[in-house]
Structures are given as structure tokens and as C-alpha cells.
Amino acid sequence: MKLLTVAIPCYNSADYMRRCIDSLLPGGDDVEIIIVNDGSTDNTADIAEEYSQRFPNIVKVINKENGGHGSAVNAGIEKASGLYFKVVDSDDWVSQSAYEKILECLKALLGDGKSVDMFISNFVYEKEGEKRKKVMKYHHALPQDEIFTWKDIHHFWVGQYILMHSVIYRTKLLRECGLKLPEHTFYVDNIFVFNPLPYVKTMYYLDVNFYRYYIGRADQSVNEEVMISRIDQQIKVNKMMVDYYVSEFSRIIANGKVRKYMVNYLDIITTVSSVLLIRSGVEENLEKKKELWNYIKGKDKWLWARLRSGILGNAMNLPGKLGRRITVDGYKICQRIFHFN
Predict the structure, then answer these.
(1) Homologous superfamily (CATH) for 2-215
(2) Per-residue pLDDT tens for 264-299?
């Protein structure tokens, strides 16, 4: 069994996938790299096959019909032989020194007869044209260099949460919790992180800048204009996360810290949905925002009240044109501070 499986979902990734794969190869025989060619029409498949022939003990290839990012991740989980599982998108890459430290840490834990459900590290926004890179760290909220549980977690800042770039999950846990991402749907990385949380018991945080998250392509799914054009996809994921929270409530409520964190996560995702709907300036989308909040209220009145009465919820529901302008201005300030989109 490999120590770590890294799945690389690829769709027409020929122009940039080599940097991603090359950054992962130094993991050597401890790592299994699964390149998932999700129905590409360029020469992604040829590049993937080239690497599998050059590194047959490390690189595997899955060629499948196009099903979207979630479908590619599902395929990676299904075929993974590693004890742990990581997703690295094909336009991103990892830091060599941090990679080595993470592998050493995972091996040391296993050498002591221990394993963790979720391993967390930092990620860096590699935003095109910016020399100063924003690093997302968690050292104020998470204990460092030790195994910990939910009760040991401190307070997260408003608007802060753990993204897919930050996590490595125990592969068996992903299968045990029945994780299945929706096909032909964008923004499912939120579901990938969110759904396993009620099953997570033990965690480990290593304060290293591991994942390099590239932002800069005009067609990128996190580009603001693209997100607005795909707002129905964002709303779909938002609702699916609410549905999951409600369906798993008996498991979630058993641990107050899990519930608190998952509600915080929903707070952020609903804020993203709401501000993009407002930012679009389209009357139809303002109705969609109202419908989203009513959907949450219909699913769980306590959850709706908690989200609606919070700092973010209040900001997203300021009345009238002036209120919406204040919301957008606040969003722009957050963009400058956190360097997203």
C-alpha cells in the first residue's frame, strides 16, 4: 500500500499539467499519482500516458468520459491505493520542501502506530501578477505538530475555513462516509471538505506552505465573472451542503465543535452565494438570493436564524440599493485583504 494517493483531475490541461505532475514526482514510491483524464479533447491523455510509461510505479492514468471535477475526484477515490488521499488540481502545484516534511510526518505517525483522519497544512494564493503571495495559515486556530481532536480547536476568524487545498484525508474515511461528489457540477471542492467532517475524529496540523493555488486564467472557475455566470451551480452546491447538514444532524449534534465549524462553513458558502447574486446586478438573481435563504429556512429554522443573525448574514441582507452597495463595497475590501477571485 502507498502512503499517499494524489488525484489530479484533468480536463484540457495540456498547457499546464506538467508543472503539477513534476512537483509531485519527488514523493517517489511513497506516493501514487492518479491522473484522471476527464474526457479531454486536447493532448492531455498523451501527456498522462507519457508520465505513466516513464514512472510506472508512481503514475497511473484513468481515461473516462467527461463528468466534471467531482466525477474525476470520485474516480480517484475509487482507484486509490494510498492510505491517505489528496486532490491537486492540474493548474496548481506543491512546494518541494513542504511536500517532503508532510511525507516525513505521515511516515513518522505510522511508525508510531498512529494515523489521523484529516491532515491539514497551509496553502498559498499564486495570483497572477502579484509578487506578494497571500498565505492561508491556521496556527491561531489549530494545535501544531500533534494529534488533536475537535475539542482542542480554537476560534476561527469570521470568514475563515479549511479549503480542499489544505486537507489530506484518510482514504478509508472518505469511503466509509460514502462521499460521492455530483457530476457536471462546479464548486464541489466545498462538498469534498464538508461532507467527511462529522466522521473525522483525529487531526494533525503542520504549519508548512504546501499547496500553491494558482489564480489567473480568464476561464478559471473561481474568476468572479465566471462564478456569476455559473451562479446556479454555486446555489446547487450551497443547497446540497445544507441538505447534508440536515440529513447528518444526529451525528453532527453529538459533537458541539463539529456543529459549530460546519455552521461556520455554511455561513461562508451562503455569503459567497449571496454576494455574487447581489454583485450580478440582475433583478432575477436578487429573487434567487431570497429563494436561497427561504430554502435554508424551510430545511432548518435554527440554522437559518443562526446564519441570518450573524455578521455575514446581516451584511448579505441589508435592505434596498444602498444596503446592496454597502455589501458589495465590503466584499471588495475582503477581496483586497484576502486576495481571492
Answers:
(1) Spore Coat Polysaccharide Biosynthesis Protein SpsA; Chain A (3.90.550.10)
(2) 999 889 988 998 898 887 889 989 999 999 999 999
